[in-house]
Write a structure and sequence with these properties.
The protein is α/β, with parallel strands linked by helices and 431 residues long. The chain has 16 helices and 14 strands. The two termini are 26 Å apart. Bound molecules: ligand KE4.
């Protein structure tokens, strides 16, 4: 596979941008090799600057549930951009998207749009601290909620990949109120509430963890968080930046029938353009300026292009489409399981809807500690064996694969054919 152009661009990029990328996980740090500079995407296919084509399972980290350059999204944006890109004023487009999100998420009585998942979680936690008058929060080890300083305490995603429990540049004082519990461990959460009974403003959780690889909630875990937070007067915040509209039309809160007080969204609701949102109970959201004393603002918040791309995307998410995503994703996961077994490579494959992960470990994976036991060298070997065969996976064992509406049965079959060969390569490395 020729990669000269990517290599040339990467050499220059590293001189001009930290690590040559705009976000750490893209630098292939966990798998090695040269990140591919992408020239275009269409449907399930990415094409890099050397002309190599790949079936894409990153999907811009989950944002592109319809695949790349969906015709309806492109048409709507082409039309919208003629009217300008941003006015810094209210528009009907943001209201239309708000209404559609609220149809799917009844718990979101009021919503505020921002420009990233980071802003969404940071702001939701500010609301929680204002509404409760409390300072502490609980997050989970391996949970990633964006890069707000006080959340970079044993986060997931890029940080988990690099094993950096905390980031440089974050004063110890700023994470002192950030309590961390193992994911899926209700007893640990109960113990923190007993230790700080009236000091915890909120628990923030990925209702399906996607930043330590995909780790589903154990039965009762989310309902247990709901009852603990109610008992101690804390708020429950679902970070559905990945799971919102991914695992179901109404997100994980619909799938697991647990209603949080606040929800954070991103990715899919922007249709591939910059977006984030937070929302929930009206009494809480009415704390947000200018309705209330919690300040939060943003130049491009609610910009018409993101709003329109998001609305048009949600309009395509029909029950039939979710059935198709379920079928294709189940076929992929089952095929991967069989391929690994045939090659004699021990793996655990986790899937919720159209997000999934392959863990190269014999241990059951239930939290970050067990997810981190996945064999990174084997994943790196598998990643490159798949990349060479035209399959573009997340360049980290602690991220999620995403199946889009554009992935056909033929794409899945081609992926499984590559996986059979890639698992055999991994097996040869084991022997
Ligand atoms: P952004 O600020 O990157 O838009 O969203 C932060 C965020 C918040 N919550 C969850 C559950 C998330 O997964 C994310 C961002 N996800 C990562 C990858 N898993 C984005 C990819 C990257 O960092 O480059």
């Amino acid at each position: 596979m020729r990669t000269e152009r990517s290599e040339q661009l990467y050499a220059v990029a590293r001189m001009r941008m930290p690590g040559g990328v705009s976000s750490p996980v893209r630098a292939f740090g966990a798998v090695g090799g040269t990140p591919r500079f992408i020239a275009r995407g269409r449907g399930a296919i990415l094409e890099d600057v050397d002309g190599n084509r790949y079936i894409d399972y990153v999907g811009s980290w989950g944002a592109l549930i319809l695949g790349h350059a969906h015709p309806a999204v492109v048409r709507a944006l082409r039309e919208a951009i003629r009217r300008g890109t941003s006015y810094g004023a209210p528009t009907e487009a943001e209201l239309e998207l708000a209404l559609r999100i609220q149809e799917a998420f009844p718990s979101i009585q009021k919503i505020r749009f921002v420009n990233s998942g980071t802003e969404a979680t940071m702001s939701a936690l500010r609301v929680a601290r204002a509404a409760t008058g409390r300072s502490k929060i609980i997050k989970f080890e391996g949970g990633y909620h964006g890069h707000a300083d006080f959340l970079l305490a044993r986060a997931g995603s890029g940080l988990a990949t690099f094993g950096l429990p905390d980031s440089a540049g974050v004063p110890e004082a700023w994470v002192r109120d950030t309590l961390v519990a193992p994911y899926n461990d209700l007893d640990a959460v109960a113990a923190l509430f007993e230790q700080f009974p009236d000091q915890i403003a909120a628990v923030i959780v990925e209702p399906v963890a996607g930043n330590m690889g995909v780790v589903p909630p154990k039965p009762g875990f989310l309902k247990g968080l709901r009852s603990l937070t109610r008992r101690y007067g804390a708020l429950l915040i679902f970070d559905e930046v990945i799971t919102g509209f991914r695992v179901a039309w109404g997100g994980a809160q619909a799938l697991y029938e647990v209603e949080p007080d606040l929800t954070c969204l991103g990715k899919i609701i922007g249709g591939g353009l910059p977006v984030g949102a937070y929302g929930g109970r009206a009494d809480l959201m009415d704390q947000v300026a200018p309705a209330g004393p919690v300040y939060q603002a943003g130049t491009l918040s609610g910009n018409p292009l993101s709003m329109i791309a998001g609305r048009v995307t949600l309009e395509q998410l029909t029950p039939a489409l979710y059935r198709q995503l379920e079928e294709r994703s189940a076929a992929l996961a089952e095929g991967l399981r069989e391929a690994a077994e045939q090659a004699g490579v021990p793996v655990h494959i986790h899937r919720v809807g159209s997000m999934l992960s392959v863990f190269f470990t014999e241990r059951a994976v239930v939290d970050y500690a067990t997810a981190a036991s996945t064999d990174r060298a084997r994943y790196a070997r598998f990643f490159h064996a798949m990349l060479e065969r035209g399959i573009y996976l997340p360049p980290s064992p602690l991220e999620a694969w995403f199946v889009s509406a554009a992935h056909t049965e033929a794409h899945i079959e081609r992926t499984l054919r590559a996986a059979r060969a890639a698992f055999r390569e991994v097996a040869r490395g084991i022997l």
